[in-house]
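Re: that chain you flagged

S.,

Sorry for the slow reply, it's been a week of failed gels. I finally had a moment to sit down with the sequence you sent. For the record, here it is as I used it:
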Amino acid sequence: MSTTETTTGRTLNLLVANVPTPSVKACCQTGTGVGAGPDAPAVALVGAPNTGKSTLFNALTGARVTMGNWPGTTVEVSRGVWKTTKDAATCDCTECTCDPSEKRLDITVVDLPGAYSLDPHSPDEALTRELLIGVPEDERPDLCIVACDASRLANSLYLVAQLRERGLPIVVALTMLDVAAKSGISVDAPALSVALDCPVVGIDPRRRTGLESLARTVREALVEPAAVARPVAADLDSLELDDDRFSWIARAVELGTQSPAEPARTFSDKVDRWVTAPVLGPAIFLGVMWLVFQITTVVAAPLQDFLDGLFTGPVSEGAQWLFAQVGLTGSWFEGLVVDGIIAGVGMLLTFVPLMTLMFVLLALLEDSGYLARAAVVTDRLMRAIGLPGRAFLPLIVGFGCNVPAISATRILPSSRQRILTALLVPFTSCTARLTVFVMLGSVFFGPYAGTAVFAMYVVSILLVVFTGLILRRTLWRTMGAEPLIIDLPAYQRPTLRLTASVTWVRLQGFLQTAAGIIVITVCAVWLLQSIPTQPGEQFGDVPVADSVYGVAAQAIAPAFAPAGFGSWESTSTLVVGFVAKEAVISSWAQTYAVEEPEDSASPGDLGDAVLASFTESSGGHPVPAALAFMIFLLAYTPCVATLAAQWREIGGRWTVFGVVLQLAIAWGLAVAVFQVGRLFL
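Prediction finished late last night. Pasting the structure tokens below so you have them in one place:
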């Protein structure tokens, strides 16, 4: 139903190229319906950040793009098909005899990045301007749907004023009407429509109300004559032009809304008094995140038990039975299928409950409006390293996955800010590392596993700040700090539909990205462990220590001896983790020739093997060695997908610099943690 196109630089004009002006037929005219394609009407969805624009796009098209109740969600251009119909109730016929195909109209909807105006102050606003007015007239969208926040109507109407001056046909979609009502603001859509001289429709995309009215209005607007531009004197300078726009906006708000004389103190205002406080705010934020990770580590365990038992039991046993029937028991092919493919897929699927629960909790925080407050809470830290509070938003995304987080750096206005943020994102602990942390926490910290995992995320934040300070005082000495300017959304009760949609988007992305990487990595590890290095040994029947995999790992193991995990069994997993952190546990299981743990929180035989290995390599100090390993896993080079994203966004030179920096910091911290920890533990 939809495609997503990532664009940068001067290639922006290609996104809406070859979209001709359509010929739209009315209900009672003969003809056929229009399919989404070269001849379909093209409608641009525009609006300021956090007006519900991306949520509306999903509601109209059924597409699945990243949504959230915080600014900066849309940093890409998404396209989808909006299938509209005209029923008998809206038909002009006295007795409707229309063919059903004549009632249907498929519309191409283009979801543009959030923009407050056509005067760009960031790359995403520049992209929106380019697509709306920077291309030839015949390549522009046939209609613009402008999402306007009814609770902050004046803020949204500046963009409407600019579009009206350009003569672009628009339909205003009023969102956040429930939030406006709680503030005592009532909006008269017909009166506002007269004041703006364009159609106005009230909708609630979160609950999918008002969409039929919007479809009817858009269809009618597409067949109307070309819009007439709002008259503006030609001799006005920029200040006079702004004054004219603000006067026009004020008049429209006065005619179309009723507000209390004294703005009511909303629930959001009362809550923000506490959650954005200088001292209490960060404490609340850390408490919320601790609760998220505690719930994740505890609740997902039974489901992980079931899935792992399914693959290590019936699925693996069934495959072995089949191989026995065809006489391939003990063959290398059986090892590839059972120990490689099935083990890899099974390991991936055991992650699903953990990932799902994490994504659900983060989606609830986003939809409620709380994560936007996190940017306010962390603004002081961000400014200390030369970044605006807005940079915290990509960093938050990084705790889910580093790849989209690096793409999200496009919301920052300065190229230097984007480079610095992209270098810091890999220090945020993505969910791929979570399963490893949970397993090691369960092995070495027992009932305090949840707290140990939470500590890794605190260390992750400290690493971002520490590294940012180093870079700020060296390579970025001349970059000044910027104040945070952000629209805080009202707190809302999360909806089941939106939470489920966001969770599915992220889980689907995780599975699509990880599936191939994990299976290929597991199979590659199996292959390397099957190739002998000693004479007389056969392929597929060789001790792991004597395989190509084991010999290579033994060569690099001494480098990690000062950190307490200088055994080849441990260091080899770090090489695998360079490809995908999700494959660390599976490579351990293959190395020790034990089954995958039933769940990360109950590691079983694998946990015993890892404990014994760390005890031996650390000289009897397994706890500080495990901490050092977790620190190294947190800080060292991210997966290859992240490196590819960095290469695309900031170039090869800075990507290589980031890899070297991460390895140096990871090794130095791991050694320091172990050497100090062994004195006490």
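What I noticed first: Residues 26 and 223 are 8 Å apart (CA to CA).

Talk soon,
D.
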